[in-house]
Amino acid sequence: MKFHNIKIIPFLVIFALPNYLIYAASASDSKHLEYRNRVYKENIKTVILFPADDIKASSVYPAAIPLNQSIPLVLKFDELFTDEAEYYKAKIIHCNMNWEPSHLSEMQYLYEYNEFSIDQFDFSIATKIPFTHFTFRVPKVKLPGNYLLVVYRENNANDLILSRRFIVYDQKIGITGNTGLSSGVAQRNMNQQIEFMIDYTNFPIPNPYLDIQVVIRQNDRWDNAIFGLKPTIIREDVSQLEYRHFNFENNFNGGNEFRFFDIRTTHYGGRNVEKTNISDTQVDAYLFIDEPRTTQPYTFIADLNGGFVIENLEGKDNLLESDYINVHFFLDLKEKSEKDIFIFGKLTDWNYGDINKMKYINASGLYSGILRLKQGLYDFSYSIPENMENPGILEGNHFETKNEYEIIIYFKDQLLGTDIIIGYLKFI
Fold this sequence. Notes:
- The chain is mainly beta.
- It folds into three domains: 2-169, no CATH class; 174-254 and 403-427, Immunoglobulin-like; 259-392, no CATH class.
- 4% of the residues lie in helices and 40% in strands.
- It contains four helices and 30 strands.
- The strands form seven sheets. Strands 2, 4, 7, 8, 11 and 12 form a six-stranded mixed sheet that branches. Strands 13, 14, 17, 18 and 19 form a five-stranded antiparallel sheet that branches.
- A hairpin with a 7-residue loop joins strand 15 and strand 16 (226-227).
- Residues 1-30 have low confidence and may be disordered.
C-alpha cells in the first residue's frame, strides 16, 4: 500500500547519478534482524531516535528516557528517490542487558498490540533529491530495560527497514560518578578513568554483588561500552557500592575532539568545506584534505561528541527543505596503509561497512570516501577497526578530551526473569 503525491519525478533523474550512489536492491541485502542500530535499505537515510523536547532533529542526545516517559522518544527517517510514502509498521522488542531478546511476553511490557503504523509523513520541498520524511512517536512501555525498535514494510515483519536501540530507566537508586586520570602511569596522558558509587538505600538488593550489573558508555556508543564491572567495596551498613578499579577495567581511551564540517548551505563552502559543486540533479561538497593527528597536541573544540544536527540556512523547514549532499572525504597518510580505513561517527551509526570504507587512490596518493548526507552540522573521525585498542593511531589520544559518559545500572528481577534498569547517570 502506498500514499501517492501528485508530483511525478522523471525516471531518468535517478540514473543520471553516479553509479556508486544509485540505490538498487540486491540479493546481498541482508534481511536478518540484528539487535543493534542498523539500516537494512540503502535508500533509508538520516535515522534519528531522540527525545521529543529536542527542538532540532539531532543525534546529540542518547535514546534514553525515564519510565514515566513524560518526554517520549521520536523516530525520524527519510526514504530517498520517492514522492510516494511506503506503508511502514513498527514493533518493540524487550531485551536483556546483553541485547538478546528477553522471555517476556509482549503483554508484560506493552500497553498495546505490538504492531504500530507509521502514518505521519511529509514530502521534501524543492530538493534536488526527492525524499519522503517519516515521523513516529514511540509508544509508552510498562517496564524499564533495553528495547529494540524495529521498522518493517507493510505487513511483512521480515522485510526489515531499520532497527534502533533505546533504553528506559526507573530511577530507584542514586548514582554519583566522575571522570578522572587513569591509575596507570603510562596511561595517564591518554585514558579517562570512570569511578562511581551506587546508593541503594531506597531499593533493597538481597545480593548486590550478583544482582547488579553495570554498563558504561562513551559518547552514546555500544561498540566500546564497558560491561561486567563488579563493586570494589560493598558497604551493606549504609547500602552503598563503590566502583574504584585499579587494573584499567574502568578506563576508556580519551581519543580526541572530533573533526567536523558544515553543510548547512549549498551557496558557499561551510567550515572545513573547500568547495561545492551544484548540478541539476545533485550537490557535491568537497572537504579539505585531512591528515593524521597522531602527534599533534591536544586542542579543545566544542564538538557534538561524534553526533550531528540536521539544519539548513536557506529554507524555513530543516527537515523537508534540507537537501542530500554527496560529501567527499580525503585523508593524506603519505603512504598506503595495510589496514582498511573508515569514516566513523554517528553519521555511520558507529558501524563499519562498505559504504563508509575509504579507497586508496593511486594517482593522488590519498584515501577517498563519499557519504550521502542531509544538510547540517556533522562530527566524524577516521578509524581502523583492528586498532580499537589504540584509536589514537589516526586521531590522537588525550586524557583532556571532553567525552560524554553514561552509567546504566541493571537489576536481575527474579520475578520477571530478566534485566531491568534501576539507575541511569549522564555526565561529562
